[in-house]
Amino acid sequence: MTDENMPGIQGELVYSCIGCGNTYDIYDFVYTCPACGALLKIENLRFDEYKKIPPAKWKEIFDSRKNTTLPELSGVFRFHELILPIVPLKDIIYLGEGQTPIVRANPELSEWVGAPFLIKNDGLNPSASFKDRGMASAISFLNHAIREKNLDNVLGICASTGDTSAAAALYLSYLPKSKVRAVVLLPKGKVTPAQLSQPLGSGAVVIEMPGVFDDCMRIVEELAQNYHVFLLNSKNPVRILGQKSYAYEVAQQLSWDTDGLVVVVPIGNAGNITAIMEGFIDLFELGVITVLPTILGVQSHHADPISRWRASGVYTPLKVTPSVAQAAMIGDPVSFPKVKKLVETHFNSRFHVVSVSETEIMEGMLTANRHGHVVCTQGGESVAGLKKALKEGIVPSASRFVLDSTSHQLKFALFQQMYFEDTFDSEYGVLTKECLKSKPVSLDADAQNIARYLGLEKKG
Fold first, then answer.
1. What pTM was estimated for this model as a whole?
2. All domains of the chain, ordered by start, with CATH?
């Protein structure tokens, strides 16, 4: 990588209200517009200067960083200029996030779904979910702000169904304990044991409360509005910046060719699908890609307000019922206003949402895992969503498909075991199939006995 492709501190970032258009200083730690209450996005006031750089040069810059030995540019900050150009390399926190692989589905799985496709496995991030992308940017910015503004006693806080809390606690634990504390709010009994163990292991204060994620989020929003805390949910637009890297990576991994591309994304709080759309828009406006991809969102029918909005044109928050796709069990996604605006201004006919059943989600996860993948229930949601969209003709089978598996299979092994043992509560509505069940076989420690069980024939 030549010196000319090294990032400098360039850009002028402000919070910009998606409602009234007011702007605020990037160091103010605001999460909704003080004037009108609408959501904020981060705007680079010097982005037009980026457009003067030829697309081929941008590709050269980003491609030259692929094999860097610099940790600061090894993760999502390979795209430093498009994420946080005001943060110098010395303040970047890198824990191994980003640059997750795209894996081709084998022929049997492709046939089952209805077309060849690729899975981008974001469960291979350090805390085992895509949330690390956003935490890398949020905590790098916080690290920068602590040094720049000489801050002390900062409390980082989030509401979570599991993955956000794990990522927030992990990244905050890297900062000095004398300056930063981590607190997470979880809905009691609605987080898997594996996910609960993560923030506890990272030393965060874990507060369990009755209700669902939406209830936790309301408390966190009130705390962020009235107290000095650093919010780490996707309502904080600094987190969205890092999650845009998913789109940048997909484009780069496809040699910057997005023609005919469909990106399949499970929707929970709608922060990730917002980030992915914004990421592709960045590349399109720079000329790095020549066409925006189609976005296919997927929701469980137990929590599908955006699917219903897309079908009817009317958005109504829902009271959710239990879902195996726990990260998506959100009835009133915080980032919906951003999704609506992005669809209306950029994607329009290139944005679809399908709703799938809990049974379809489990079958998607188990079938994918039986064919060489390690997808979580949200990944199973993506698989099920693409299968349904192809069957209903929502997307053409001749397209190229990249599916987002947001987390690691092992975080949700509990649901796999419940499927195998038929122990789902009735409110999940999961109907099991014997062909997808599995259990250990107990045999004596005898080679001949095991050979007979396996139907093996003796040599010669």
1. 0.94
2. 102-126+241-436 (3.40.50.1100)
